[in-house]
Amino acid sequence: MENEKQLRWSNIALIAFVAVWGLGNVVNNFALQGLSVVTSWILIMIIYFIPYTLIVGQLGSTFKDAEGGVSSWIRATSTKRLAYYAAWTYWIVHIPYLAQKPQGILIAFSWLFRGNGNFVNTTPALVVQAICLVLFLFFLWIASLGLTTLKRIGSVAGTGMFIMSILFIILAVSAPFMTKATVQTPNMFSLKSYLPKFDFTYFTTVSMLVFAVGGSEKISPYVNKTKIRDVSFR
Question: Are the beta carbons of 222 and 61 closer than 8 angstroms?
């Protein structure tokens, strides 16, 4: 029973994959930067994502019994007031992010059952808001069921996201060979297409990349619920 309430490193990895990764981030950043986003992804991984993940992993391992994540770390290393401000700020910036999640589910189901994403646009706003509220409350209830439920849902969601990501890459490469479709990206095999132009416009899109690879700090509170926590979380 005790083992059932503990997470394995594979559960942590899959939950982290869902929290950090998203196919929408690939599409959005490609729309902003084009092929040069390939170089941008490499740079943001080296400069931000890898160091940040190592820092989060170290903090999660150091403060093993701190379940508040970022606010708990700040409280332990600074003051309660600063920890409160950090928690409040973290909550505020997540309000619009969480509010659009149920709407994203509706759009996904619209594509699944109707073949288009127009459900949200063609349905009265009050109805959409009511459905989104019900979905939000439903997932709050799911989250309150405990670690075992989180482990199962995280594993299913993480596995599904991982498979979709692999299929996305495989189909993107194989589609021109499987069909008569031609490559629509101009100068795809030119090195210049992959080199970003470091101007003001480029730097205004960096926040999208940071947003895309952020989120690993959400996993840290589960470090003390992981088997062999000092090793697994790292």
Answer: no
